[in-house]
Amino acid sequence: MIRALKRLGPGPTIGAFLIVIFVAAALFGPSLAPYSPTAETGPMLAPSSRAHLLGTDQFGYDLLSEILYGARVAAIISLTVVTLSLLIGTILGTIAGYFGGLIDDILMRIVDVLLAFPGILLNIAIVALVARPGLSHLIFALTINGWVGYARVARGQVLQLREREFVQAARAIGASPWRVMARHVAPNILGPLIVQATAGAAGVILTEATLAFLGIGHVAPYSWGALLDQGTSFLWKTHHLAIVSGSCIAVVVLGCNLLGDGLRDHLDPRRARR
Amino acid sequence: MLGVLVLVFLLVHLIPGDPVDNMLGEGADPRDKLSLRVCLDLANPDGSAVSLPRQFARFMRHVGDGTLGTTCHDPLHPRTVASLVAEALPHTVALALAAMAVALLLALPLGVAAALRPRSALDAAATTVSLAGLSIPTPWLGPLLILTFYIKLHWFPGPADDEGGLAALVLPAIMLGTHLMAMLSRMTRASLLEVIGEDYVRTARAKGLSPSRVIVKHALRNALVPVITVAGIQFGSLLAGAVVTEKVFARPGLGLLLLDAIGQRDYRVVQGCTLVIAISYVVVNLLVDLAYGAADPRIRLS
To answer: A135 to chain B, minimum CA–CA distance in Å?
Structure first.
């Protein structure tokens, strides 16, 4: 593990470190949090103090506790959306690339339409359809165009692999198309897809924060985007709310970007030399 | 284009369950539900449902006659969605153009400087700036800009300033343009580095041209083609991204119109805004493709 990080260089190592902290906060945060994230435990909008390390928000809730619970919200959403998108995208992209023909045409037209649509706008329009959107609505809205990128990458990879000897050999000995795809093609296209997923996680966290910030797709009052929205409204009175919540989002996104860049350079040494 | 129209039309039906129940909540007044159903062309005034193909025909008629339908939230003073959009659109386009200008003006010098001295301190600084630009959440950048340049330094007008003129556009443009700036400066660097290694650049050098002439006339001209393409394609995302900027700076534009409509549960307006932004996105992409083909004869549209 340490040797692998050493090979990747300092940037990706920092990225991996930031992500580990984020995941730890999501896993253990709620048990470490000093207070409940929805209980009035101090004065409103108080700055940092011994009792409230990061201060309090407009309702007198402890900001540190909210941030820790918010990390879990962000982690659940990004993990679910990225996993679902990766699965759907890989399966559809592999099928399109492997079979070609009509299936490929239809799937790629759907991909084109979804790509022709500004992503965040589609997310907004879908979440806006529900009076009180829950976690599942948000995940649905983010996955509906999330899979497209993975499908394109998977299809491109499969098109290259399809004519390689080991795939043809598997076909020649009579393996069914599904077996060839699952056993021989899919494992060989995972590298670029995982790189894409690392960057994708950053995108999901950013979009979730943006939607919560816009006041639509509010899944929890302590989601980081909602806290940032609150902080922006009270910018005149105090800065700590906006600065703390915004920097949490920024740090996690930076971590994903650093790690994603490093992994991509690692997989494609041609890029790294530039 | 047709695909985008169909997608915008189908949006209402994408979420499982009855669209009006979802929008108003289960316990809403049946009369409110019916009037919203009628307004959205989901039902006839007598309560009977409208079939999907007929809904699509009505939707296309609203698009075709240029009204995009009428607003739902205020039945006494209905307005066409198109008139609302026409009021808001110029503000959003101005903001997107300003953001594009900010992005290009910063990204090109940054990218070129980094590519000319790869692995130098300057390159490291440019790479750091672009990484920061890519990672900083746009909803966070706005408040930070307001805090620094308005509340603390008083350099630029703040949110909801109608008399600020061009100066009032500066902070929103930086907020909206930063992400694109980061993307373009990375691309400029990578693309210029690639071109500098090409044979024709070596030939130009070997002819004895001055280094600056080689870079400007031979390398940059070719290196910028992909950069400009991406900039063009991203113009549509700027229109969509303006939603956040317009909220932070309380600027009257398509984004604010969209958010207000969501607050009023007026899905007709949401649909109209979405459609206008999506269509401009597609049209800009098409124009960029055509311009790209004209600029670079190696690309032939097949």
So the answer is: 13
